[in-house]
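We were asked to recover a plausible sequence for a given structure. The inputs and outputs are reproduced exactly as logged, with field labels preserved.

PROBLEM: sequence recovery
POSITIONS: 203
GIVEN STRUCTURE:
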């Protein structure tokens, strides 16, 4: 039976806590992946790869990699979405810079890092998506295609992320690539199963 209750809108406070909570969870997931020398997809994966090549911190590189995508976000998804995405990217960059100062992970099993890193990042992205935000880059593209074409964001991102992970073969050992694909699958299946267009009422 379909609910007849009026649809509620997210308040400014709702959105603010969602951006902070989502990006904090994602920063911890990314830290787990990086500690185990794993890779992932999207602009996060690109930033991790560049970190391996250059030694520059992930937070700085992630912020820079996303800059070209804001114009697409503004044209295709609107001003509010673009502003929330810009804030989300800035927050994740900041948390990634601050996290090593307050929390250090020692020896960790790479399979655990892949699964928990993927889950944390997936849940964090779900929170952002539910509040009309993303982490830029590939997120902007898949959300746009989901809204316009009805294609599942999780399945589309899984395909794109798999291709990005394979590109890292030149610098990441093959066993870590295989484990990284597990993490990418966990992340994107979390999105595919839980982020379904029209399932939720609030905007």
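RECOVERED SEQUENCE:
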């Amino acid at each position: 039976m379909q609910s007849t209750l009026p649809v509620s809108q997210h308040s400014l406070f709702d959105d603010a806590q969602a951006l902070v909570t989502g990006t904090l969870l994602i920063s911890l997931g990314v830290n787990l992946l990086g500690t185990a020398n794993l890779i992932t997809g999207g602009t996060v994966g690109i930033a991790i790869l560049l970190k391996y090549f250059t030694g520059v911190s992930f937070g700085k590189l992630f912020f820079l990699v996303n800059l070209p995508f804001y114009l697409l976000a503004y044209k295709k998804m609107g001003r509010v979405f673009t502003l929330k995405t810009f804030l989300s990217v800035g927050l994740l960059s900041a948390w990634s810079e601050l996290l090593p100062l307050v929390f250090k992970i020692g020896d960790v099993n790479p399979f655990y890092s892949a699964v928990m890193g993927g889950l944390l990042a997936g849940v964090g992205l779900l929170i952002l998506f539910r509040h009309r935000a993303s982490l830029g880059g590939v997120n902007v593209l898949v959300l746009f295609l989901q809204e316009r074409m009805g294609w599942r964001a999780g399945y589309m991102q899984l395909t794109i992320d798999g291709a990005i992970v394979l590109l890292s073969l030149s610098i990441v050992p093959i066993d870590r690539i295989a484990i990284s694909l597990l993490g990418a699958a966990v992340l994107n299946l979390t999105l595919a199963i839980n982020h379904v267009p029209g399932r939720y009422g609030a905007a």
